[in-house]
Amino acid sequence: MALPTLKNHLHRMLFKSKRLGISGFTLLELLVAMIVAGIVVSGLLYVIVELLQIDRRESILDQTQRDMQRALNYITDDIREAVYIYDDPTTVATQLSDSPARSVPILAFWRPDPVSNIPVCTLIADPIKKDECDVLRIRRSSYSLVIYFQKTRDSNPNWLGRSRIIRYELDKYSNMTTLALTSGYQDPASTDVSFSGWTRLGASTDGTKNVLVDFVDAPSTPYTKSPLSDSPPCSTLGANYKLVPSTAATTATPATSFFGCVRDPSPTIADASGNGNQDAYLFLRGSIDGAGGSIGIRTGNDSSLPTLETRVLMRGVIDKTPTN
């Protein structure tokens, strides 16, 4: 009996609907609804994409700034072990035959590096090499020339930043078994040779080159963020400090992205009583230009990061004359 009752109820509902003129949605109403829904969905998608871009941008900014800080810490540790820093890195960089192309030398210094795997000196037939081996076993280190270059962006697909920092190192030995010297190397502590007037030995040099960090801002890029007015130029530090490189700009627009202020290594200038410890102020600024990928990070002024600054005191000295 329930089935006829349900059938009668449906008939009554259908009859009532026809009597009241109730019908479905028209085509125009459906089109309007679809347009409104499309606008709402498009707006939501735009907001989501913008949020993704902001999140990606902030992540890249944070990572790049961390990379700049790590690079600056590495350079600081490197200089801290040095015994001589050039107040004009071009004087020694011009001696290299294998310096990075289209690059500018920023910092150049000599530092002692520990030497391992020293051969058994008694097995060396050459008396000169044998004497050198005996000295090496006592010193357990040799001097290495280190130069930091800044290279602008080129066609190399592995490096996408505006510029990158390259660490060049010329070690003394290329073969520890025979104590063979690296091509072009000349010991700055040997007779008739000095750190300040060092020249290469032979026609060419054969150092190692490695990229320290990418996404450094262009060498000279106008920007308005974080001006260096809070970081005084070298002239305000005293007459003993020299700008490296000498062409660096220390004002806000434009401001060189990687430069330093190095204390003059001359004994008469560095310390009236003798050759004192050198120190240096270093400045480094990164940029996320080129790091956007498919997200599309903006380029230009907005891609530059705040400039990092540090001061480092060189631990090692040569020919120091104590006063007391």
Automatic annotation (TrEMBL):
Domain of life: Bacteria
Keyword vocabulary terms for this entry: Membrane, Transmembrane, Transmembrane helix
Membrane spanning residue stretches: 20-49
Keyword Membrane attributed: yes
InterPro entries for this protein: N_methyl_site, Pilin-like
Protein name per UniProt: Prepilin-type cleavage/methylation domain-containing protein
Species: Leptolyngbya foveolarum
